């Protein structure tokens, strides 16, 4: 299915090219102002317009209810591993939280949270990150301030195809790698965060969507720049926000809106991932995906070649040949771990 004549020139990548060409066009002179977004003051009226329109687009695309704040922060998904416990552990006296650990990223988040309070892993430890543990085995703690999970484990290719039913507890979710890849019912969550660089823009900005009634209980050791109440109260400009990354996010969100919104992204992602899973399934074990079928990610598809652990010579040949076809970033090293700008779209 990879053909010699496949070429990745900008005009053949409509999603990337529209956004990047728009950014290129406006790079030196944003809408006739004579300056670039890169040069703009984050407190100027023009940047405020960009900030507000980006937030409004996000609210529109995800039907974010009015009692949720949308914040744009620096520090990436990893800063949120600390920000979530620092902001939410104080919801209950016990200072403890429940974590569902299904891969590398939720494991890192749980480890970080342990610095600030007690962490309870709700399910028996997994031997490998290849499935979502059966919800019937989860033991939630009544004193937990929140329940945390990662909806798509980027490295391991494990994706939730359901929202955990945790009754009245506060649900916090890392959606960094499947954000806006499909519609999501925001009202089921206390908090959602997502780094922009996978699906909605470039590195530098992380979106936080948080229910208003959860604000105001940050631990005293919470750095001011990670305090959701302070950042929300200052419309994300308590300190200098990543202005250009927010601007790029706005362009991507506009592209998503003009191309059928979250529902259409879901359809595309089903089609795209099916192409690869079908190939794996029909390969008689030549390609091996370790993840159980119902937990397979539509966003990141890890696979080995030749056998479960990968045949080194075959995998090297695959990477060399794929690089020759321009289908693969050779430097990304491992099959299935190449994250690209705008990966939500073909
Ligand atoms: N969570 C997930 C699901 C991720 O994929 C990543 C990064 N790949 C992170 C968190 C960490 O994000 P960052 O590198 O922006 O800190």
Describe this structure in words.
This is phosphoserine transaminase. Residues 1-14 have a biased composition (Basic and acidic residues). Residues 17-322 form the Aminotransferase class V domain. The chain starts with 13 loop residues before the first helix and ends in a 22-residue tail after the last helix. The longest helix is centred in the C-terminal third of the chain and has 21 residues, at 261-281. The protein has 8 helices and 11 strands. It has helices spanning 14-26, 45-62, 76-88, 104-113, 228-233, 243-258, 261-281, 312-324; strands at 68-73, 96-99, 118-121, 144-150, 152-153, 158-159, 171-174, 191-195, 206-211, 287-288, 304-305. The strands form 3 sheets. Strands 1-9-8-7-4-2-3 form a 7-stranded mixed sheet. With 346 residues, the protein is an alpha/beta fold. 32% of the residues lie in helices and 13% in strands. The site of 4'-deoxy-4'-aminopyridoxal-5'-phosphate has 10 residues, from helix 3. 4'-deoxy-4'-aminopyridoxal-5'-phosphate (PMP) is lined by residues 76-78, 105, 150, 154, 174, 176-177, 195.
Features:
disordered N terminus; 346 residues; alpha/beta; binds 4'-deoxy-4'-aminopyridoxal-5'-phosphate; seven-stranded mixed sheet; two-stranded antiparallel sheet
Bound molecules: 4'-deoxy-4'-aminopyridoxal-5'-phosphate
The poorly predicted ranges are 1-8, 332-346
**Within the largest sheet, what's the order of strands?**
1-9-8-7-4-2-3
| Number of continuous helical runs | 8
Spatial gap, N to C terminus: 15 Å
Report the portion of residues in β strands: 5-15%
Quick one: overall form?
globular
Estimated radius of gyration: 21 Å
**Helicity range of the residues?**
25-40%
Q: Helix and strand string, N-terminal first? A: HHEHEHEEEEEEEHHHEEH
Total beta strand runs = 11
Q: Would you tell me the overall average pLDDT?
A: 91
The largest sheet, given as strand count, sense and whether it forms a barrel, is: 7 strands, mixed
Biased composition (Basic and acidic residues): 1-14
Protein name: phosphoserine transaminase
Family: Belongs to the class-V pyridoxal-phosphate-dependent aminotransferase family. SerC subfamily.
Domain Aminotransferase class V: 17-322
């Amino acid at each position: 299915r990879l053909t010699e004549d496949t070429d990745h020139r900008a005009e053949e990548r409509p999603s990337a090219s529209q956004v990047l060409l728009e950014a290129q066009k406006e790079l030196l002179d944003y809408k006739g102002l004579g300056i670039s977004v890169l040069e703009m003051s984050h407190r100027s009226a023009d940047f405020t317009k960009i900030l507000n329109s980006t937030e409004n687009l996000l609210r529109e695309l995800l039907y974010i209810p009015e009692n949720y704040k949308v914040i744009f922060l620096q520090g990436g998904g990893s800063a949120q591993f600390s920000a979530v416990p620092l902001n939410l552990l104080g919801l209950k006296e016990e200072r403890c939280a429940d974590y569902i650990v299904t891969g590398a990223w939720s494991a890192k988040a749980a480890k970080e949270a342990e610095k600030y309070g007690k962490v309870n892993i709700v399910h028996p430890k997994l031997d490998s990150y290849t499935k979502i543990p059966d919800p019937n085995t989860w033991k939630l703690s009544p004193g937990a301030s929140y329940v945390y999970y990662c909806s798509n484990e980027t490295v391991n290719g494990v994706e939730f195809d359901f929202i955990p039913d945790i009754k009245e507890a506060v649900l916090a979710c890392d959606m960094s790698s499947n954000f806006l890849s499909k519609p999501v019912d925001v009202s089921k969550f206390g908090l959602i965060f997502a780094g922009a660089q996978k699906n909605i823009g470039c590195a530098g900005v992380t979106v936080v969507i948080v229910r208003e009634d959860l604000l105001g209980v940050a631990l005293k050791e919470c750095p001011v720049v990670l305090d959701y109440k302070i950042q929300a109260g200052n419309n994300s400009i308590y300190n200098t926000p990543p202005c250009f990354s927010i601007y790029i996010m706005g362009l991507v969100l506009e592209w998503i809106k003009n191309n059928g919104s979250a529902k259409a992204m879901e359809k595309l992602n089903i089609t795209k991932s099916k192409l690869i899973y079908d190939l794996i399934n029909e390969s008689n074990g030549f390609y091996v995906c370790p993840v159980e079928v119902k937990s397979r990610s539509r966003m990141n598809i890890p696979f080995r070649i030749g056998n479960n652990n990968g045949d080194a010579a075959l995998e090297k040949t695959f990477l060399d040949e794929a690089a020759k076809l321009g289908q693969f970033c050779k430097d990304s090293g491992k099959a299935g771990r190449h994250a690209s700008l705008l990966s939500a779209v073909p």
